[in-house]
Amino acid sequence: MQFISQYLPEIISPPPARTGNLINDSYGYQWLEVDLGQRTKIAAVATQGRYGSSDWLTSYLLMFSDTGHNWKQHRQEDSIGSFPGNSNADSVVQYKLQQPAVARFLRLLPLRWNPSGRMGLRLEAYGCPHTSDVLSLRGGGLAYRLSPGPRRSSGEVVSLEFKTARSSGTLLQAEGEGGLGLSLELERGKLLLLTRGTERPPSSEPRRVASLGSLLDDQQWHRLAVERRGSQLNVTVDEHAAERLRLPAEFPASLAPPPVQLSVAAARGLVSERNFDGCLENLVYNGLDLVELFKSKDRRVTVGNVTFSCAESVSVAVTFPGPRSFLRLPGAAPSLSEGVSVGLQFRTWNDAGLLLTFDLPEEGGVAWLYLSEARLRLQIHKAGGALLELSAGSALNDGLWHSVELTSGRGRLTIAVDTEERGVANAGHPVAAGSQLFFGGCPAAEDTQDCKNPFGVFQGCMRLLRLEDQPVDLIKVQQRLLGNYSHLQIDMCGIIDRCSPSRCEHGGRCTQSWTAFRCNCSASGYSGATCHSSVYEQSCEAYKHNGNTSGHFYIDVDGSGPIRPQLVYCNMTEENTWMEIRHNNTELTGVRPSAGVDQHSVHFDYSAEEEQLLAAISQSEHCEQELSYRCRKSRLLNTPEGSPFSWWLGGPGPGRVQTYWGGAQPGSRQCACGLRGDCVDPQHYCNCDADRTDWAEDSGLLTHEESLPVRSLVLGDIQRAGSEAAYRVGPLRCYGDKNFWNAAFFDKETSYLHFPTFHGELSADISFLFKTTASSGVFLENLGIKDFIRIELSSSTRVVFSLDVGDGPLEVRVESSVPLNDDRWHRVRAERNVREASLRLDALPAARRGAPADGHLHLQLNSQLFIGGTASRQKGFRGCIRALQLNGVTLDLEERARITPGVRAGCPGHCGSYGSLCRNRGRCAERANGFLCDCGLSAHTGAFCHTEVSASFLPGTTVSYTFKQPHESGRNSSARPSSVYSDTTLRGEDVSLSFRTNQSPALLLYVSSHHGESLALLINKHGEEAFILKEFLRGSLTLLSPGSEDVDPELSPLASLGFTGCLSVVRFNPVSPLKAALLSSALVFVPLHVALESCCCFSPVGSDVLSGVSYFLPFSLSAVDQSGSAGSGQPLVNAVRTDSALIGGVIAVAIFLIASGLALTARFLYRRKETYGNQEAGGVKQEDSGDFTFTTQRDSQSVSTENPKEYFI
Where is each F5/8 type C domain found (predicted)? Predict the structure, then answer.
């Protein structure tokens, strides 16, 4: 290792201890250039200020070159900006280059220095000489023909380094027999991997497999390595762009069958226009230096049009990096030019910006040549108006070099792009440039009035500038001998491809400008600045706790991890939330004997990919899959001692052979009946093994997760005459989420859990839920030498995400309008990537902070990860944390909490956060992992008591619910109900139902007591709801058409009304008779001609009238039976006989008499009664009509708080 020390302006090695040089005029656009004498591999640089002074640099840029031209800025892997310098004059700051640079020339550009001093510098560069065999190819190439015979190696490795100024050409090609081959070709500055298979004719186009690298035509050295191991191919460009590929099946185990030829920089022959044009070095195949072989006259190597040096054409480029960049050049003398001729080449990522502007002295106008919408446009203006507009080209912001020609003469004005697309117009008179031309932008307004730019500055590179067919010497411009400029980088093109390698994850599409990149995440299933965070939940359990009901959902089992989202069905109708993953055949499928077929084999293709299936099974608490076999003279497993006739394959990959059946244990070679001991033949362990002519069945659930899912099924005993069988493999069903409920409780501020260092260098996402009663505390912290990451509750309403990746601390805050220390679960999601840091709290909008444009990229941490506290044991968190995930990986808090003092595994109490999901009087019940909605007191059902229970009623259909009788003491007729059970007496009856019907009048509900009191709810002849009520002790409740012998004599005329239509969510106090009838497990006799059918009342049906009504009838009726629940009776469907056609005719005649009689009795029998308590009753207006007197309240809660009234008939 050698070192070189530079004291301005001379090189000394080794350096004596003396004062470094001083630049008296400290202004920008200065640099220190070092000629190392030969190409050198530079590994590190060190800087120091001027001895005993206040002169030192605080930041600088490093550039390298082989020729002293076409400089390339060196960028550290974790930063695209400058290098930090010194903080004083004496200390030495050394930086090891993460990727050594090979160059002859080194240039250091000061950016900032001590404001109290001037530029002062001592420099050392550490490295060693670089030697290599270099080839220069101008359309030529090199071919290496391998010797026939067996190969010693199981693979091939080819490596080389190349540089070129052309964007296309064949770099590497390997050919075998039959046209089989691989090739690597430059196309538009990228390297394409192409394959040619034997099934294609030799003249056909090869298949594109991958694209690697970008901007490879920049005349800088790039390294290429190709490694083949079997069918695996690894291709790497510049250590950053790498692809791991699997070759098509037609490729053999070696690169190609012998003989084989490896062509370098040649496509079709050793000399061709399609061949590579540039320089190569370090060309090695399987450890053999091919250039050395050629020099030693090895006959296996042939070359054409090759020289052993690298001859480069000098092309000086200029970079316009920012908004203050411009280049001013003098125009031609007016007497020498009757028009204008300007040529240049440019490359950029921006779709807009000014390329060139100049005044038109004779016309008093101005010309603008600019980019707009990635097209080249020319505008000629005079006196504020546009005289002429031209456009040419498209998609010119692709980062490639594009040539532009602007010419004017003989009345014609022409712009051309890439010598192909042109825009031509008749100018009418010559267009000549003024005394100066401005490229890329204009000086500041206070510096000039001669340049105006309404189109924005140009950010990109230019080269090969020509004025009036004469090249512009940009080196003279750099030396201030020609024209003027500001904020330019001359003799280099500083373009960067921010999309190679792409920072967009999960298939997001990367687009870029000169200063930034953007990710289009549409249709990817991910969101964020880099498409890092999944937009889907990780399980059906998580969807349920968001309030979702059963349906198809996308789940992303590993969040931001590499596994893609999958579509599953979430069944939330049971106590557990089931996830179902279906395959291509879940139906019962018959199998019959086929001639010449001894076995029937079937393979199951699942809707999810392999890694999705395995991750879903691993994450779930329980998984199962139904496996059933129906048989007639078709044996299944035989005996445990014999060979099985049938088997199945299950588990990861193609699966392992399994010889047990559903309901049995792995390895038992039995069916469920053998395990229970109830098979039809005790000599066998499966029903089907009895080999009987009667149909039999062996079925059960497979629950051993290591054997799931079922991949294939092989049935063996199906070839005999008379054999019949049918099989069914159900969908994979899983419930529970081990990660969602994984929690820990921190009961002290000094309590914490620690885990290994978090590695989230370029992308990091953290998500968890917390609940606490404390007002502050640190949730998570991980430290590095300088970098850190922390999430904390800084106050009762604020969560803060803070981090440092080397550019200084950055904070993202989210404020909540409600306290966060309410002992309810709150969700936190934090993300950091190379573009921004973001923080989400519950459903609040995300807070974001952008990262510095040229800042550090890598988050470098090295300490342990602390959860619930910090390394200093201060500001710890008191409360619960659960479902903690870092980059999609769940940390097992419970396992670590079991061995950590001060921390408890698990965290109960979920109803406080999720209880509101239980609707319609459903009650939240706590579970160890989650909660359950108890719908026992609700007329609804479902996971959240949200599903209506409805039934369609035909004429004569009846549901009767019988209450338990009260104690004998309650039957004392001298005692009022309120005095019998004063401790449980209700203030009134709470009745609610919804219905749909086109019948009027109709009876909806009838309630009778053990002592003859009753209540009836009906629809009058105008289609309005009405009720008739007498005080009663609770006895029975009937929906529709009660028998006349059970009805109060005063209400017996109403019994014949009946009801045809749909009733839904019927509730009488705590009793739901319709729900009990439809969902009861008890066997209920239903006559075939009149059935109670479940339906949905709120589906549009013809012209039915849709009505919904909720009643709260505030009467003091009897209390519930203290010996049992009020709802302990059983529903009886059709307990009252259906009416005959004859009775139906009588009813039609009686309706008129009933309506007339009730109209008279309602006028005289109506009376009002004081309500209970001290409330005063309001008056009720009597309707003078022939209808039933009624009242309707649609909100039971509002009625209970106003003046409830009682009505008697």
Answer: 1-128
d(CA 445, CA 503): 38
The neighbouring-strand residues paired with 8 are none
**What is the value of pTM for the model shown?**
0.77
Lowest mean pLDDT among 207-211, 287-291, 557-561: 207-211
Tokens representing residue 916 in the block: 């509101």
Nearest to 482 by CA among 492, 470, 493: 470
**Joined tokens for residue 922:** 């459903």
Assigned token pair, 122: 């001592």
Lookup result for tokens 């042939």: 302
- Distance separating alpha carbons of residues 1169 and 454, to the nearest angstrom: 85
Q: Give, as one character, the DSSP assignment of residue 1127.
A: T
Distance between CA atoms of 1018 and 860, rounded to whole angstroms?
75
Nearest to 1031 by CA among 1065, 982, 966, 986: 986
SS3 915: helix
d(CA 352, CA 370): 7
- pLDDT digits 0-9 by tens, 808-822: 899 999 999 999 999
Q: What is the pLDDT of residues 752-793, one digit of tens each?
A: 999 999 998 889 999 999 999 999 999 999 999 989 999 999
Within 10 Å of residue 552's Cβ, how many Cβ atoms? 9
Range list of β-strands (E), 74-154: 83-84, 93-113, 122-129, 134-145
- CB-CB contact of 85 with 330 (8 Å): no
Provide the β-strand partners of residue 173.
183, 263
Whether the per-residue pLDDT at 475 is higher than 50: the answer is yes
Q: Give strand ranges (E) for 998-1060.
A: 1002-1009, 1014-1019, 1025-1029, 1034-1039
H or E stretch covering 356: strand 353-360
β-bridge partners, 1017: 1005, 1027
Distance, CA of 910 to CA of 593 (rounded, Å): 57
Q: To the nearest 10°, the Cα dihedral for 877, 879, 880, 886? A: -10
Q: pLDDT by residue (tens digit) across 395-450?
A: 999 999 999 999 887 778 889 999 876 777 766 566 788 889 999 999 887 666 67
